[in-house]
Amino acid sequence: MTTVRGARARARIEITAAIKDEARTQLAAEGAARLSLRAVARELGMVSSALYRYFPSRDDLLTALIVDAYDAVGAAAEQAAAEAAEQRPLDRWTAVCRAVRAWAVDHPHEYALIYGSPVPGYTAPEDTIGPASRVGLVLVETARGAHTGEGVALPPLPEGLRPEAARLAADLAPDLPPALAVMLVSAWSQLFGLVSFEVFGHFHNIVEDRDAFFAAAARRLGQDVGLLPRG
């Protein structure tokens, strides 16, 4: 009986993976708004009722794809941080940013699913929050390491921003200075702005050497966060 259950579990894993692979093919061809369970089932030679046993609705399938995409870019960021663990924080920050960009350029349709236009009629459930936080947490940890190690250089906070800075710090990183929390949120949003401009073609006929441009911009973001350049 254990062998039968194991075979069924493996079959379910394989079929689930095949469903998601076909759904990603549809994302590339048609976009997330036109994702169809019936079309996925048809391409896999399944009846729709069989596919519904794996994903009861289109939104369930979308959520699985979104979680996978967030986990993939998060894993790329975490791996880059681990590989650069012995480097100075600014170099580690830049390595993480470059890993995020590389993943996005290699997976433009999955990137568009999580950072592009919202899918009409779809509301992301709480299941996506943890995976969506992974890149941000790597950036926070990089800044935390600098703050507790060689220190960070931050500009003074404008008076009017101090209440919001205190709230951000309390929510995101209570052990870090409010000014650092503000700069982290700002840099996080600018990082994905840079990546989105490239992935969605806004640098066309403007930026030619995009590797060099991005590396310099990512390093500048790290310095804005207060990470110190090599002395």
From TrEMBL:
Classification via Pfam families: TetR_C_33, TetR_N
Domain of life: Bacteria
Protein name: TetR/AcrR family transcriptional regulator
DNA-binding region positions on the chain: 36-55
Coiled coil: none
Protein source organism: Streptomyces zaomyceticus
Gene3D superfamilies with a match to the protein in the record: Tetracycline Repressor, domain 2
HTH tetR-type domain residues: 13-73
Keywords per UniProt: DNA-binding, Transcription, Transcription regulation
